[in-house]
């Protein structure tokens, strides 16, 4: 079931990789190689927490639902949850 | 005034004292001055005088005559003196003593001659009677004293008379003395200081003492605030800042210096088992379920549209224009003239070297009419006709000179091998050159650092070997004179290397990969196709072969095309005939389906030449016979092409030969379409580099643009220009721009997107007719246009940015424009049909009307005829009367008639 979902996501156009991390930033599942996974997970983890804390500090009843970082070459999408984070890296074709 | 003199004087004064009598006379005293008297000498009565000779005469007291040493005096009467004073006034010598004389009590004054000048002047007057008496009558011993005086001084016994004390007579000098004298004001105090003797020189001891203890031990001058010097500050500048609460705390610690420390860490990871366990956990599944939807939406959104597009940036034109955007003129870059030639030459054709930067080849021909050519044919034979290679680095000496037997009127570099050049001559021959041997020379042309000692000699004196500057290269091969063209070759083109043609005009695939066929058109109304490969002869002719072999060739000519030399025959000939009439079309330019060189295939050529270099022998050196026998012809290849003729027609015809049903022979097809559009001969038939089916034709005084497939007419036909157009070319980078050269040396630049009825820009290049235009692009920034004129000068101009750089979507815009024109033509056609119909209808109506009017009754017609006849008679009568030929029946006055 997990695999199917990940496969489905992977088959989308332009997707480069998918990582599932827990709240501490340790990757659980990934479609990319190990070193890249670790790097992305560590870097994104701090960012996700910061974003979440920002949202909640402004309004404690608010919560982060989705996070997108659009860069020149790629796009990082993060879907946070209480326990896990899903990170997807896409290269949108222009 | 020695006392001695005083003493002496006293007695002598007493002796000599005399006075003159004087009568008091009242005299007006204008001046009263005190005369000088000898009071100082003790004789207040003596008044010294100066008596001039005149006065002496008057008063008879002339010196040494009346007044002598014995009797040195004279008694003068007062009256006489007054008289003299009156007579002589101020001039009189007695004037100073006038007052004295007046006051003189007696009558006579005594005037004494002062010989020794005792009193300063030569005479003196005694003013008192007493004095006079004393003088005259010196008491007691006058003569004796006189004598004694003379002898007294040495012998006299000086009797000392002690001074008699007299009572002091104060004259007021005591006061002065008192003032000047110094007296003690106060009594002088005397001190006596003593000290014990043993204390002298003893050591001194100092001791401290409190200053305040002893009275008056110190004097201080305390400072006190003086009100005159205090300023009260009334204004002060203060800065204030509100800052958050700050707390400064400092401590003293032991100072430590920074040290480098490292930490090595390893990212935490789950072990495989843990991962698997977690991977299967329900929480993960739930999570993914929840999250995947939104992620998918986001992913797809990105694919659909890029929300971060900057619309403004994409809308604007590309920036980074090089050069001034307002500069639209062609800038003169360089110009080349052949200074060697003796006769006047014109440039007939230009071609840029496809590969090498800055190398351009021009063909020059003698500027003579046919008659002159015949006249000077002997002289012309001596001068070789040339193709000159010019390089930007050397404007004086051409790099290479290709020799040909006759004047070349058109030539072209082979697209696949730039060292092969084919040219068409004025006599109908085709000439081939192979400059592979000199390829290095022209590739590495450096700036002219050559010696300028080589004088420019006329050509016929130069020998090719001694001229180190430029090399004459003899042609490799010429075509056969009998079987080729009979008249001047007007256009020569290499067929692209993608296909080849056989005798019948059938198209085959070109397996060689090189261009090996040429197409030429000439004034003898034929278009020929040539193949540069050795052809297998249809009938073996060994004897002729031997003859050919015995022809000697110069050793420096490469043997690439030896097989073709002088025996080259065209592969296929197409005659453009007009049917039964004898006059055939005279083609001037042809345009095949794909213009190879215009599509910049530089990269392709470069790749080929590189591979050639590696392989050492080019395929041109190993040409084999055509393989057309083995291949199947391509069916759906378009064999039609455009031809421009000398009469100004544009023909669209087919080169495929068709079988004539009557004779069974292969005949050229009739032209598909023929348009008479231009007024003069068509010199440019060119396909657009951007659109394969758009053809530009220029001839006479106008321009036409055609689209292949549209048979109704040209898409654009310009109106007649004031000056004849003599050359033209599409722009290589802008789809809607083309250049036209005029006969007065102007170049018209047309921009279809700007104006279609007249040129967008007109610029003067030279003074004479422009014979050829060829633009070329070296880089996106640098584009040149080569313009050749009638006087043999080649001008290279730089095309400005605005003309060379296409705007965004220009291709689409121009395409749209052409499509609109096509539609317009169709519409015109449609309208024609409609108009025809309308016209037909109108004619029918007219017919009907005529039929209606014809139905009149006969009687009416007769009545009308009669009326007409009568009116005619009237007219006749009046005319005759007016002419005076008929007699006037009524008696009308002569004047009325006139």
From TrEMBL, chain A:
<dbReference type="GO" id="GO:0045505">
    <property type="term" value="F:dynein intermediate chain binding"/>
</dbReference>
<comment type="function">
    <text>Acts as one of several non-catalytic accessory components of the cytoplasmic dynein 1 complex that are thought to be involved in linking dynein to cargos and to adapter proteins that regulate dynein function. Cytoplasmic dynein 1 acts as a motor for the intracellular retrograde motility of vesicles and organelles along microtubules.</text>
</comment>
<dbReference type="InterPro" id="IPR016561">
    <property type="entry name" value="DYNLRB1/2"/>
</dbReference>
<keyword id="KW-0963">Cytoplasm</keyword>
<keyword id="KW-0206">Cytoskeleton</keyword>
<dbReference type="InterPro" id="IPR004942">
    <property type="entry name" value="Roadblock/LAMTOR2_dom"/>
</dbReference>
<comment type="subunit">
    <text>Homodimer. The cytoplasmic dynein 1 complex consists of two catalytic heavy chains (HCs) and a number of non-catalytic subunits presented by intermediate chains (ICs), light intermediate chains (LICs) and light chains (LCs); the composition seems to vary in respect to the IC, LIC and LC composition. The heavy chain homodimer serves as a scaffold for the probable homodimeric assembly of the respective non-catalytic subunits. The ICs and LICs bind directly to the HC dimer and the LCs assemble on the IC dimer.</text>
</comment>
<dbReference type="GO" id="GO:0005868">
    <property type="term" value="C:cytoplasmic dynein complex"/>
</dbReference>
<protein>
    <recommendedName>
        <fullName>Dynein light chain roadblock</fullName>
    </recommendedName>
</protein>
<dbReference type="Pfam" id="PF03259">
    <property type="entry name" value="Robl_LC7"/>
</dbReference>
<keyword id="KW-0493">Microtubule</keyword>
<comment type="similarity">
    <text>Belongs to the GAMAD family.</text>
</comment>
<feature type="domain" description="Roadblock/LAMTOR2">
    <location>
        <begin position="2"/>
        <end position="90"/>
    </location>
</feature>
<dbReference type="GO" id="GO:0005737">
    <property type="term" value="C:cytoplasm"/>
</dbReference>
<keyword id="KW-0813">Transport</keyword>
<keyword id="KW-0243">Dynein</keyword>
<dbReference type="GO" id="GO:0007018">
    <property type="term" value="P:microtubule-based movement"/>
</dbReference>
<dbReference type="GO" id="GO:0005874">
    <property type="term" value="C:microtubule"/>
</dbReference>
<keyword id="KW-0505">Motor protein</keyword>
